[in-house]
Design brief:
- It is built from ten helices and no strands.
- The chain is mainly alpha-helical and about 210 residues long.
- It has two domains: about 5-80, no CATH class; about 90-208, Homeodomain-like (Arc Repressor Mutant, subunit A), CATH 1.10.10.
């Protein structure tokens, strides 16, 4: 069984201090002389006054004061427990939103420039004013990579061109180079892996 961390105990002590402070303040105030109770700023106990303590403990209204203190203590504790996690969740949500927005911009840049053979993760990072490693992490969070997304966009465009009647007379090698591939053999392998057919088969099936 995993032992609680030091941070856990520090948070627990802080919560307990917030919850118990009103009770502690009542007890400390009860030992003060009447002239010290309303002193501003508050002063420490110079001469413990047992008469005030007995009056507080056995006098009328003690149950009301105790109830008020309990309400204050419990309310402040619940507020601390509510506001703290909410703030953390809000920060996390803002971070996720920023990453999602940047990933969307990165994808849009790649889609618009996928035909360029000089496009790289560095050029995408420069367009977003972030580091290449940051861009790499954005795609890794989606379970893919910059390279795979780029190749996917190029293959999608090539497939669309192969299926267009207006491109029926365009050489497959020309289409491969136009969408950004520099190696025809690599293009054919990746195309077949993606669509289960060769570029020629896709064009042949469309022509029939």
């Amino acid at each position: 069984m995993r032992r609680p961390s030091l941070m856990f105990w520090l948070i627990l002590v802080l919560i307990a201090a917030v919850a118990l402070f009103p009770y502690l303040w009542i007890v400390l105030t009860s030992f003060k002389a009447r002239s010290d109770i309303l002193t501003t700023p508050p002063v420490w106990i110079h001469d413990p006054n047992w008469i005030n303590y007995q009056s507080m403990l056995f006098g009328r209204g003690f149950d009301k004061y105790l109830l008020n203190s309990a309400i204050i203590g419990i309310s402040s504790t619940l507020l601390a427990l509510t506001v703290g996690p909410t703030s953390d969740f809000a920060d996390a949500a803002r971070t996720r939103g920023l990453k999602a927005a940047r990933l969307k911009l990165a994808k849009s840049f790649i889609v618009a420039h996928s035909h360029r053979r000089d496009i790289s993760i560095s050029t995408v990072a420069a367009s977003l004013n972030v580091t290449p490693r940051y861009v790499q992490r954005l795609f890794e969070a989606e379970g893919t990579t910059f390279s795979e997304f780029l190749i996917g966009q190029r293959l999608t465009r090539a497939h669309r061109l192969l299926c267009e009647p207006n491109s029926s007379h365009t050489a497959i090698s020309t289409i491969a180079y136009d969408v950004g591939f520099g190696d025809l053999s690599y293009f054919n392998r990746r195309f077949r892996r993606q669509y289960g057919n060769t570029p020629r088969e896709v064009r042949g099936e469309k022509a029939e």
